[in-house]
Structure formats: structure tokens, C-alpha cells
Amino acid sequence: LPEKFYELQKPIADDLTQRLAWIQAVDQLDEEHHDLLAQVLPHPPKKDDLDARLALGKMFATLHRELAADVLDFKEVVRLCKKLNIANEVRRWETLAKLQEKYLDLLKSLDIWDLQTARLFAIHQQDPNEFQRFHNHFKENGTQFFLLGLVDMNRAQKEILNKFREFVTPLVFAPESFKNHFDEFGCLIPEAWDHESFLLNPPLRDDQITMAAKPEQQANAVLRKIAGLGGRYATDQIVIGVPDPQVIPFVEQRLDQAKLESRHFEGTPIKKTAVYRFLEIVSAFRDSQMFAAFAELIRHPDVEWFLRNDPELRLDLLSELDHYYNEFLPVTVSDQWQSKIDTDNPQFNQSFDSLKLVWQKIKELLGVEFPSTQKLAPSLWKEKIDAMLHRLYDGNNHRLVIETLKQVNSAVGTLLNIPEKLSPQMTFSETLRLILAQIESGNIAPHENPNAIELIGWLEIVMDDAPIVIITGMNDGFVPSYLTSDMFLPDKVRRELDLEDNRRRFARDAYALSSILGTRQSIENGHAVQLISGRRSTEGDPMLPSRLFFADTPETVTRRVQQYFGAPQPEPELLLAGMIKPGQPEHSAFKIPDTEKQEKLKSMRVTEFADYLRCPYRYYLKHRLRLENLHDANEELDAPAFGTLIHEVLKQFGRSNINRSTSEENIATFLRNTLKTYVSDKYGEKPRPVVAIQMERALKRLEAFAGWQAKWAANGHTILKTELDFNSNAVTLLKKEEPILLRGRIDRIDRDENTGNLIVLDYKTSDSASEPEKTHRKKNADGNLTWIDFQLPLYYYILRESGYKEEIKLGYVLLPKDTAKTTEKLAEWTPDDIQQAVAQAEEIARHILKEDFKIADAPPPYSEAFAAICLDNVLV
Fold it and tell me: What residues have CB less than 8 Å from 364, skipping those under 6 apart?
């Protein structure tokens, strides 16, 4: 508006240029007066932290813009702080004033202005003849300016308008009795709208207020209001206010379920578009080459589509990515990719060739070298950025893609206009972040849709002519809005400077509600306006009702307080179109999937039997369908991977030439070196810090094992077999029925040289350090022992079936977190006990052969991955 009344004397700096100028001003002040800058920034961002520096530039630009809009500079705040006797603030604002001087001098040296400086110059320093020129022009042409609904203008606007009073007519919608609530420009006088004495006019009736528990219930209340209209109004005659953003998705969902179209006026935030996310991820990955960023990049839908167009890439690319991550826990990505090698079972080797090809394709897509710290002027990266976006989005005609690319291209064009003095040398990633900083707050408007109900913001409702208004989110903080804190300008200082403060916000919102009510007073006896307030947020946090509900008589205030904070009334039933059909059952449509016929069972691992006992259906999912939960969320070795780490080291010890040593020191040295080599080979020379910590923890357990092993060997125990694989030994259950091959691997078999007995030992790295008896058997309801795990008894059975005649002992070597508990624990089971276990295992095998996979009453511990399939904790 002010630019209608004066002519700009210099080019106006765009927002990016202003930010960069403030950053350079900070650097200059830091070089000249480092101690002084510390008054404002005790810990300024580092020179290479572009994001933080841009945020800093934005902060100072916003502060400068707000004060200048009310014809103030930072020196004026210094004078106020002295007046209020706030010593600390005086020193801080004196520093800010010096910073502002440097900023303005910098713009002056570039022969540019920002808009605020241009307006201040026009008000205070411009040749009066310039205003007179405009004055004469308006008079000659009979020009008149009408201010419609401009009830809250800043001082700069008013001072310029004041020079043209005869051409300006403010129009205010309000009762005649409210005449003293507005100044000569039609702007609100905050004192007249004081929230403690203000009464709404027209008053708000109780039946226009709905109290709802959560956003879901607010959305339900919207539908009930629309249903109550009885179809008398078209969709373009209904508008829904959404001052609280968290309510929006619930309202949209409910309208969709009721077969009503909706249109959120703000549209799609740029930050949620695929193009923005792509550039954001590329920036993060290009800077760090972190595997997590690489995985996120591959999972981007547009990049995934780009990769799948290559016939050489496998369809299960993301699964392979997760397998690779869980196998090696890589920190970064480079040209060096590992392969999974299992010398004992070559069939499990995995080369991950697809990922190597993906890496090459990603490098081609981005079009920049890895690694590279090359820095150029932002404008020189334009060609690289354009080429990258062309490679990915050429031919993509999706509206959101096209509109976002337009904004990106506009931002890229801005880079070309940065004054050379302000243009820093930047990496490719930093340039991307510079582009994103320019567009991050933008939105892409939705399609026009005359059949849709509009969802609009609070301040837009006043100017909307729809006769029916339903407003959600009528809670304090949204209506009226307010600030609870400000880094530089707290509410008290704002009030003294006559800046926008919470009084002005209350006045603005009180006027808005008065206008909304007043424009629809004659429709349906005032039922045209419905206000909905929530008691709790989506997170369940309590919320206060809008204080505008209490701009009424004391009796009404008391009644509404009791209604809001009293016991909530039950929500009326809500029936949505299309949700109830004749003959449809009342119970949930969700059901646990049925099992399907599988190939004939031929073999089982010895650890599978316990899973079946815990839950036959989950056994079916885990072992028959071979479902597994793949993700890349682990930041450290999970329990199985940590156990494998220790097992691999102990396997190499068992096969080494010192496995009969009685020297604790020699054993510990071997284990230490083996562990270090294994971790280096698998997780890299510089593994994640947490993996390095876990390696040290594993070492503590292995050192405790060394002490135990030395004593165990000294007492006459010799390792005969390590990692004995009996998958091909053809030991079966149900020999005379349908033979089931047993599969598995025994950690180690020792011989007691004193007795000739064999001892089967299984390493256990869990923290619980449970004995074999506790893990394998428990008492049932009648007090008798029953088998719940079959691993060790089936080892016994396999060895007997394989021809071992010696007496066989079964047990664990416990390697718990508490290394003082490192020891062996042998079971005291008789041959009859073993036979009972084998018989029970055979019974389980028969059930599996019959495909008896009923679901257990309660989910067992291992079933978290299947919780959604099994509807755990869901009422059905």
C-alpha cells in the first residue's frame, strides 16, 4: 500500500540478499568488536554452518522489518530501555544498533535498499515536492482510496496515508456504538477492546458453542452442523474455519467419509512436496555421504521410480538395502561395498551387486563428484542443479511437481542477482539449502473446485461472504492468538513501543468474531455461526477455550466455565454416508488372515519347536511363510547381532591351535585380536561409536570367558567339535510316519578326559544367564514339568542317532553382562526326560504336518513383528 504514494529511489533487495547482508554485518562486527557481539550472540554459529547463519540472518531481518514498519530503529529501543532502566537490555540493544548500522551501510555501498528503509526515507527525508507530485496527480484524476477492513496497520503505513488524508476513506463494519473503538484510519484502538471489560456485539449465544474432546470430535461436530442444515445450503455457501492446523486432517477425513468434497485454501506446503524433499535429502547426503541419507534418498518415490527404470536393478532393492545395513551397520557410503561371506555355508553368501549399481546410478543422477568439497559462487552451480532436476523430472507432468519446480527455478534465478560482494563461495549442498531457504514457507494453491466446502484461516473468514460459518479450534493461543515470549521484544517492551502485542492481537480477533457474528445475525436466528472448541490436543494435552467465549456478562461467564470444565457430555452418534450397508455385520471388518496350504514340510530347525508352542499361527508366519521385519532403524548391534559377534570369535577360538591352552592370558590375547579383526573387517576401521563401545563390552565378556576356559581346560576338558553342522546328517523325527529332517548347529562339543563323557555346550550371551532347566521346562497346571524348549534334548537325540555312544551331558556356557557370573551350567536330565522331550517334539511335528496353526490367546515375546497381522491389542 505505501508504494502507491511514493516512488522507489533505489532497487529493493530481495529477502535472500537481506539475509546475506545481515550475515556479513555480523561477521564485520565480530572481526571489529568480538566482545561486543557476545552481548547479543554468546555462541555465534560457525562460518561453515550455513543453515544456522541463514536462520540468524532471517532473525535479524525480521526484527529490523518489524521495527521499521512502525518507524523505529534499534536506537529507539536503546532509548526505551534506558527509560525503563533495563541495564542488560541497554547493552544488548546498543550492540544491535551498531549491527544495524553496518547492515544499512552495506546496502548503501551496494546502492540498494530494503523496503523498510525506502519507506522510512520517504517519510522522513524525501523531498516534500515528491509527495506533492503524487498529490497533484491524484487530484487531477479524481483518485480516491478506500480502506476496506484494514483494521490493523503499522505506523509507517499510517504516516504515509496521513500525508494524503483527503484522498483516503476508511470503511469499517461495526455498530455505531463502537465508533470510539477505531482511530481516524479505521484501525482498532486496543484499549477500547480490553479483554476484561469488552463485550461481544452481537453477543454469542450458548447454542453457538460446541465443546469437543479432541480434534476427532471437533470434526464430528462439523458434520453434525452441516447435517443440521438439512441440505438448504450449497457447498459454496458453507465455510469452515481452521485456525488450529492440527484439526484440518480430521475435518478433511470426516468430510470425505461423508462424501463431501473439501478444499483447504492454503493448499500444499512446499516443504511437503516431493521436489522439496528430494533437494533436502540430496543436500544432506551430498554433505555427509551418510548411509541413512543414502537410504532415504533411494526411498524417495521419484528416485525409486528413476532407479526401477533400469532393467538391471532388482525389484526387491529396498529389502536388499535393509539386509546390507543390518549386516554391516555402515556409517557412510563410498565406492567400497562389502560382500557377505559365510565360509561354512557358501549358499548364504551375498554380493549386493544391485546396491553397487544403485550407487553408480545415484552418482549419475546427482552429477557431482564424490567426495568433493569444491566451493563456487552459488550462481555457478545453476547448471548442475538444472541438469539434476531435468534428469529426474523430465516428462513428469504432475501439477505439484510442475508448480514446485517453478518456485525452485525462481529461487535459482535469485542466485544470479546476489550482489557479488555478498555472494559467498558455497558447496553444491549449501547452494541447495540456499534455494530451499527461499521457498520453504511457500504453498501451492489447490485446484479450484466450486463443489467443495472451503477450509480457510481465521483472519480470512471475516472477508468471506458464505452465509454459514463453522469455526473449529476456538482455543486460546489460536483465537485469540498470542505470544508468550520473544527473544528481543517481550510484550512489555512491545507495548511501550506501540508494536503489535497481545492487546492488539486480542482486539483484532475480538473484532473479527464480532464481524463474523454481525454479518450473519439475520440468518436462521443466528444459527449461521457455530464455534467449536477442543478440550485436548492430538497429543492429549489440555487446552483452554477461547477467552472470547467469556466476553459476556458475569452470569454467562460462570455458566460457560462450568460447561467447559465440567463433566463432558456424551457425543451424539454420527452416521456417515456409505459406512452402514444393509446386511453388513456389526463387528469389525478387520480379520486375521487365514493360513494357506504350504509345501510339504521336510525339515525343521531344532529352535523352531519352541516357537510353535508359544503360538502356532505366529510360527506359521515366521517359519512357514518366512516373514521377517526389515528396517534400517538400528543404530547399534541388536541382541542377535551382538550374540553372533561373540559366537564368531569363539568359533575361531574353537578351531584354533590354542583351543587346548590353559593360559588365560594367551586365550584372552587371541580373543582380543580376533574380535578386533572381525569388527574391522565387518564394520570398518572406524565403526560407529556405539559399535566400538559394544565391541569393548563384548571384549569384557570374552576376557571373562578366557578365565573360565583356562580353568575348564586345566580340569581335563578338551574341545572336540566347534560349530558342528548336522544339516546333512539325515537325522529325522517321525521315522515311521512322515520323516522330518532336523537342522541346526551345535556351538561346541567337549570331552571330559577324566570320564570320557561328551559335553554339549551352547553359548548364551543374554543378560539373564538362565540355567538350561529354566529355559527348557516349566511346571504346568497340575504341578508336573512340561517341555517348552527342545534345543538341547534334540542335540542329544541327534548325536545318539549319529552314532555317538558315550554318555552325553548337556549345558550352557553363560556369558552374561555381569561377567562375575560367567560359568557353565549343565542340565541334570535323565534319558527318560530326554525321551519325553523328543516325544513332545514329534507331537509338535505332527501338528505342523497337519497344518494346525491356530492363534494363541496372548502374543508371545518374539511376535512384535507380527502384531499388526495378528491384531494384537486391537478390539475386534
Answer: 391
